Amino acid sequence: MAVQLLIRVLLLTSMAVIPNQFGTAKASADIGVCYGMLGNNLPPATEVINLYKHNNIGKIRLFDPDPSALQALRGSEIDVTVGIRNEDLAGLASNQDAVASWFAAHVEPYLNDIVFSNIAVGNEVIPGHLGQYVLPVMESLQAILDHKNLAGIKLTTVLPANALALSYPPSAAQFSDEAANDLRGIIRFMSTHGAPLMINVYPYFAYASDPVNVRLDYALFTATAPVVQDGNLSYHNMFDAIVDAFFWATEREGVSDVNIVVAESGWPSAGNGGFTTPELASTYAKNFVNHILSNAGTPKRPGPYVEGFIFAMFNENLKPAGVEQNFGLFYPNMNPVYPVF
Question: Does residue 295 have a pLDDT over 50?
């Protein structure tokens, strides 16, 4: 998870506004939730997947192909996005046989009773030294998918906010030079194969880093009037502005037909005083769900559905102390931290 957005490109002048809504959003199979496992007190995978089904959560993101989670997902009809671990990328990039073995171990045994939507080749490795390995692994995996006629499985990678060197206003967005060096080939690959680009979107970090200049209502989807005007595009919330910034940056590289999936978005319920309360976290999560379900798209691309995943299912006690341990919708005992579903 990116720990902050580039504040210099997100500064918005105005007073913060406290949200005034606190209700219950209707759960939907169109909403995804990330299943993080960095905790030593989490329930067994079978109970976790039952919790997904009980709350009608139709999509799950696994950060790695955990065997217990995959076994529990058999027959669940939950759409699965599974990740390749960052530390495995270098070895896979140089060895087609290793890629074939990875697929044979972690995907092929489950094809008859798990719906795989995406394989995420690396999590937030671009920009960074591991970014060079993403496209070679994608190309090797695509050869396997083509050979097995598995056109429904798409290959993607997950970008942090700092893949953008500039994001404000959205129409001026561009990737950093380091990120662009790796992404140019990747987004053309995605265009060719109809695959989406995954991004992590966290308005919380922008607000918490500069609450004087970043409006709370803009971060929480609660602004009642446009906060940012970018040409003829009006932005009521930072979420749309960030998504559109990635659309603009991708187009700036000459690719206009790659969709974006929000791989992570959320608000911590504790860990940073008044910036992180259950009320604020609930407001963000409910409004995120409603925004995704509205099928409104974004100001730049109105209408098309933007797929989104909430981070995360549980508070995870092995993550760094503070906000990182408090992004969960549920406590490890499976009681809700706040009402969403």
Answer: yes
Annotation says 124 is catalytic: yes
CB 327 within 8 A of CB 63: no
Strand ranges, E, within the chain: 31-35, 59-62, 79-84, 115-123, 154-159, 164-166, 174-175, 197-200, 228-230, 233-235, 260-264, 308-310
pLDDT tens-digit profile of 143-176? 999 999 999 999 999 999 999 999 999 999 999 9
State the catalytic residue, choosing from 77, 87, 108, 124. 124
- Tell me the whole-structure pTM to 2 decimals: 0.91
Is the pLDDT reported for residue 23 higher than 70? no
- Per the CB < 8 A criterion, the answer to whether 285 and 338 are in contact is yes
Q: What is the 3-state secondary structure (H, E, C) of 63-86?
A: CCCCHHHHHHHCCCCCEEEEEECH
Any idea what the Cα angle at residue 58 is, between residues 74 and 239, rounded to 5°?
Answer: 140
From the candidates 251, 264, 307, 316, which is the catalytic residue? 264
What digits encode the pLDDT tens for the residues 33-49? 999 999 999 999 999 99
Dihedral angle of Cα 291, 296, 302, 306, to the nearest 10 degrees: 60
